[in-house]
Fold this sequence. Notes:
Blueprint: H1 44-69, H2 73-104, H3 114-118, H4 120-142, H5 148-179, H6 190-213, H7 220-261, H8 270-294, H9 300-307
Helix pairs in contact: 2-4, 2-8, 4-5, 4-7, 5-6, 6-7, 7-8
Amino acid sequence: xxxxxxxxxxxxxxxxxxxxxxxxxxxxxxxxxxxxxxxxxxxxxxxxxxxxxxxxxxxxxxxxxxxxxxxxxxxxxxxxxxxxxxxxxxxxxxxxxxxxxxxxxxxxxxxxxxxxxxxxxxxxxxxxxxxxxxxxxxxxxxxxxxxxxxxxxxxxxxxxxxxxxxxxxxxxxxxxxxxxxxxxxxxxxxxxxxxxxxxxxxxxxxxxxxxxxxxxxxxxxxxxxxxxxxxxxxxxxxxxxxxxxxxxxxxxxxxxxxxxxxxxxxxxxxxxxxxxxxxxxxxxxxxxxxxxxxxxxxxxxxxxxxxxxxx
Length: 311
């Protein structure tokens, strides 16, 4: 017989029930969009590394550009030779013309002696159209390490010096023809026609160049494209004007030799040799100036100055 036990096992004590907070939850605060958040701070080390990488990349590109355009001894000798020869011919042609006029044509005079007044014409025209204009063209090859704005100013100055020479030379030939006894007709020969066209192109070149490459620099950013497009046109017409000036000088020398020396020209007298020497120096000048301008290597320093912003 099993006996029931009157003892009951004690119940475990329960933890008191927590009293819940019955207040309604607060709405979440408005969060800022990710775009408005400030960027994470960059460390000084990262900025320094970026600067070093940029400097290294720039130096590498500069070294690569210099290596592509680096000249050897032969290139420097060629450049020096042609530039020196061109300078000698530019000054020599003017010197020979002065020697010819003073030694064989009696020098200079004004309206009281029309024949000697005419002697101003060849000297001033060679000085303006050949010497001053030739050096203004060569400046873009001679001044290879100067700032481009300085080269432009010198280019303008040399052209400005040529203007009074051309103007006075033109007036003297008209005056001497009109005062001659009997008067000599004007603008009938090929020499006069070529000279008239040359003067017109020279005037247009000066006005367009002065306005485009100096005046428009005041608004450089807005006119950069226009000026860049105008550069090859201005350069082509500048060379054309110089070649026409040489053609006018050659025809004028031939005309003067035939009219003044007549039969003595064929006898190869000393004056005839001097006149032919002046003509040959002008022909050599036309060849060497064309060669210098067509050589791309001779302009690379100016190209670097353009790319570096030295306008």
